[in-house]
C-alpha cells in the first residue's frame, strides 16, 4: 500500500458517534461557538436520557406494586439496565476527557508516520482490523436500536390491516402523566422515546469503540518494541530507547485502566443481568415480534462484552511478547552489561499489561468464556522496572 495511514483513522468511527451526541471530537477547539453549542446539545441529550431512566423506574415500581404481568417487568428491566449503563459509560468519558485526550496525544506522538515505519510495523493491518471491527459493531448496534424503536410501527400496521383498528404502541414501557394515546401527544412521545434510546445506544457504542481504539494503538506500540528488540543486536542506545518506550506504554495502560475500570465493572455486572433477563424473555411465550427483538438484544449484549474481552486479551498478548522478542535478538553477541540490562527488561516485561474491572476480574477472553465472570480480587501490578538495577546497568541512563 502506498497511502500513509493517519493516526485519526483509528479513532474516526468513535469520533463520528461522539459528534452525533455533541461531544467535542479529538483535536477540535473547545472555546468556539460551535463547541459550546455541541456542549449544549450533549447535556440536553444526557438530561433526556436520565429523564427516560427515571420514568422507566416509575413505571417499573408502579407495575411491580400492582403485581402486573411478570413478563412485562422482565422485558422492562433490560431496557432500564441498558439506559443506566449508557449513562455511566458516557459520564466516564466526560469526567476523564482531559486525561483521555492526553493519552491520545501521547499515542499520536509515538505513531509511525513514514512509509518505511508503517510497512515495518504492519500499521496497515492494524488499521484494517480497526475499521472492520468498528464498522461491523456499529452496524449491529444501530440495527438493534432501530429495530427496537420502529418495530411498534410495524406491529401497528399489521394489526390495522388484520382488524381495521389502529392501536397505538410505544417502543418502551415508560410512565407518563398524560394520555399519550391522543393524536399529537403520541407523535411527541414516540419521538421522545426514540431520541432517548438512540442516545443510550450511541453513549454505549462510542465509549466501547474508543476503548478498543486506544488498546489497538497500544498494541501497535508493543509490536514496535518487539520488532526493535529483535533487531537491536549490541546497541545500548537502541535498548535504552526500547526501555523508555516500554515504560511509556505501560504508563498509558495504567492511565487507561484508571479511566475505564469503573465502567467496565458496571458493564460486566449490568450485562450479566441484562443477558439473563433477555434470555428469559427469549424462552418465554411471547410474540414473534418480541422474540425477534429480544434475540437481537441478547446477541448484541454478548457481542458487546466479547468486544471488550477480546481487546483486553489482545493487550495481554501484545505485552507478553516483549520478553520473547528480547530473547530472539542477537544478545549472545553483546557484552555482559548489555545482557544484564536485557535480563531486567525481560523480567519486567514478564508482568504483562492487563486491564481489570476494578481489580475484581481481568478483562480477557478467559473472563468471557466464564461469563458472568468469577469475581476474584486481583493484586495490583506494580512497575518494578526501576528497582534492583545492577551497578553500571544501562538502565540507569534509561531512567533519566
TrEMBL record:
Q: Does the keyword Repressor apply?
A: no
The processes (GO biological process) annotated in the record are: signal transduction
Write one Gene Ontology MF term. odorant binding
Annotated Gene Ontology cellular components are:
plasma membrane
Q: Which InterPro entries match?
A: 7tm6_olfct_rcpt (IPR004117)
Superkingdom of this protein's organism: Eukaryota
State the membrane topology.
Answer: Multi-pass membrane protein
Chief location bin = membrane
Its annotated compartments are: Cell membrane; Membrane
Q: Which UniProt keywords apply?
A: Membrane, Olfaction, Receptor, Sensory transduction, Transducer, Transmembrane, Transmembrane helix
TM region positions: 40-61, 73-91, 139-162, 201-220, 264-282, 294-312
User: Per the similarity annotation, which family is this?
Assistant: Belongs to the insect chemoreceptor superfamily. Heteromeric odorant receptor channel (TC 1.A.69) family.
Q: What is this protein called?
A: Odorant receptor
Naturally occurring in which organism (per UniProt): Culex quinquefasciatus (Southern house mosquito)
Amino acid at each position: 500500500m502506498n497511502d500513509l495511514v493517519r493516526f485519526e483513522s483509528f479513532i474516526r468511527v468513535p469520533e463520528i458517534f461522539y459528534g452525533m451526541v455533541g461531544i467535542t471530537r479529538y483535536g477540535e477547539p473547545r472555546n468556539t461557538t460551535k463547541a459550546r453549542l455541541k456542549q449544549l446539545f450533549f447535556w440536553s441529550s444526557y438530561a433526556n436520557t436520565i429523564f427516560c431512566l427515571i420514568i422507566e423506574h416509575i413505571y417499573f415500581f408502579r407495575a411491580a406494586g400492582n403485581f402486573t404481568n411478570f413478563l412485562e417487568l422482565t422485558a422492562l428491566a433490560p431496557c432500564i439496565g441498558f439506559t443506566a449503563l449508557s449513562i455511566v459509560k458516557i459520564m466516564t468519558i466526560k469526567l476523564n476527557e482531559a486525561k483521555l485526550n492526553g493519552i491520545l496525544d501521547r499515542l499520536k506522538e509515538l505513531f509511525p508516520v513514514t512509509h518505511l515505519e508503517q510497512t515495518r510495523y504492519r500499521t496497515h493491518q492494524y488499521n484494517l482490523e480497526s475499521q472492520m471491527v468498528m464498522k461491523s459493531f456499529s452496524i449491529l448496534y444501530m440495527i438493534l436500536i432501530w429495530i427496537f424503536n420502529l418495530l411498534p410501527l410495524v406491529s401497528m400496521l399489521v394489526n390495522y390491516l388484520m382488524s381495521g383498528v389502529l392501536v397505538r404502541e410505544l417502543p418502551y414501557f415508560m410512565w407518563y402523566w398524560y394520555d399519550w394515546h391522543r393524536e399529537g401527544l403520541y407523535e411527541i412521545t414516540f419521538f421522545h422515546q426514540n431520541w432517548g434510546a438512540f442516545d443510550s445506544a450511541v453513549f454505549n457504542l462510542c465509549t466501547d469503540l474508543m476503548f478498543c481504539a486506544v488498546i489497538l494503538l497500544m498494541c501497535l506500540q508493543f509490536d514496535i518494541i518487539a520488532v526493535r528488540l529483535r533487531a537491536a543486536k549490541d546497541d545500548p542506545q537502541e535498548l535504552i530507547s526500547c526501555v523508555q518506550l516500554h515504560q511509556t506504554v505501560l504508563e498509558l495502560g495504567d492511565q487507561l485502566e484508571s479511566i475505564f475500570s469503573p465502567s467496565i465493572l458496571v458493564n460486566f455486572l449490568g450485562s450479566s443481568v441484562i443477558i439473563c433477563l433477555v434470555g428469559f424473555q427469549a424462552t418465554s411465550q411471547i410474540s414473534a415480534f418480541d422474540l425477534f427483538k429480544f434475540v437481537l438484544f441478547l446477541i448484541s449484549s454478548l457481542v458487546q462484552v466479547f468486544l471488550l474481552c477480546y481487546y483486553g486479551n489482545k493487550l495481554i498478548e501484545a505485552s507478553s511478547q516483549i520478553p520473547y522478542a528480547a530473547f530472539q535478538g542477537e544478545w549472545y553477541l553483546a557484552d555482559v552489561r548489555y545482557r544484564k540490562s536485557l535480563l531486567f527488561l525481560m523480567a519486567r516485561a514478564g508482568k504483562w499489561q492487563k486491564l481489570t474491572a476494578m481489580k475484581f476480574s481481568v478483562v480477557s477472553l478467559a473472563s468471557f468464556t466464564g461469563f458472568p465472570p468469577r469475581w476474584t480480587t486481583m493484586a495490583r501490578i506494580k512497575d518494578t522496572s526501576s528497582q534492583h538495577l545492577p551497578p553500571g546497568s544501562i538502565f540507569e541512563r534509561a531512567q533519566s
